## 1
Amino acid sequence: MNHEEINALTAEVERSGSFLEDLEKEIGKIIVGQRRMVERLLIGLLADGHILLEGVPGLAKTTAAKSLSKAIDASFHRIQFTPDLLPADLIGTLIYNQRESSFMVKKGPIFAHFILADEINRAPAKVQSALLEAMQERQVTIGDETFPLEAPFLVLATQNPIEQEGTYPLPEAQVDRFMFKVIIDYPERSEELQIMRQGDTSDAAVVMPVGKPQKLLNARELVNRIYIDEKVENYILDVVFATRQPGRFGLESLQNKIRYGASPRASIYLARASRAHAYMRRRGYVTPEDIRSIGFEVLRHRVMVTFEAEADEVTSDDIIRDIFDHIEVP
């Protein structure tokens, strides 16, 4: 892609970006602070990737997902994962119709644009697998019929990092299906004052639709056209390969701290998410800064640390930070 084509694409992105401004404005009526979480939700939407949210209760995870769905006039279902949940409670089942002597399909709550899987680690493996299969295949099979899930389809799964009793931790191979793992922290004092005042009034703000799901799908097509230079592609590969073979990149100190490096999905999602991040910044091209901005969310659940690293209180975020600080930026 030549310079003129990139400029033309950037101009197109700037025109299209007003849709995002309207979205952020509507969500901002309800959500105080948590800009990083909201931005990651929008990037996940634009890049067609699911998101794992980790944070203590009360940090507006459900409210953010619901507000986002209302802002684009999309369907939303919240599913509370519990130990007694069954796959049929999620995807649906066959019901016998006595009058017609036949089975009919009753679709489950998975059939929506936005799914909030609350406390996903509280449900057993069969239920987790049913959700993750729907995420990967974008379809659900009930009996002998297969039903495609309508686009856009975004799963936001939450995990509570505090209570681990009676939970079923997601296997690493299944966590890999999520584009992002976003860590949500407490709000600042000034933000919490605003939240307290907002929650103490009967005049609750209302999110108004600023577009239809098709508008988001059009934006997604534009995101897929955003230019990534070969040097930036190689930068992505250097970062991912450094998690697998740190010694090759002069990071011998990490050799005994990484148990497993990032999978090929990391390379795919870094490229897709960096395009969406460039779109959020109104650019028709990706820069290394886009990679660094979304790198922690894409890599933190894909880099497994060793027991030695855990003993030294070294986290995957520490390792990713070392890699980004060391790899040469093009």
## 2
Amino acid sequence: MSNLQLMSHALCPYVQRAVISLTEKGALFDRTDIDLANKPDWFLQISPLGKTPVLISVGQPIFESVPILEYLEETQPHPLHPA
């Protein structure tokens, strides 16, 4: 199991942004697709608004695609932003 876990929905364009960043950076991550019409209780415990994407890193959830992208840029190799 990877240290990075991405909670996603197959049709969410915001999740795709995180997947692209993780892939381009070569980061190992586990992806779990959530049925947003039938959200599991464990998901609602980590995402009180019940939205995706959520990235779990070192046990801490990070919500929304922009903060996830910023976190990945700061913590993962292979920067995607110019210096």
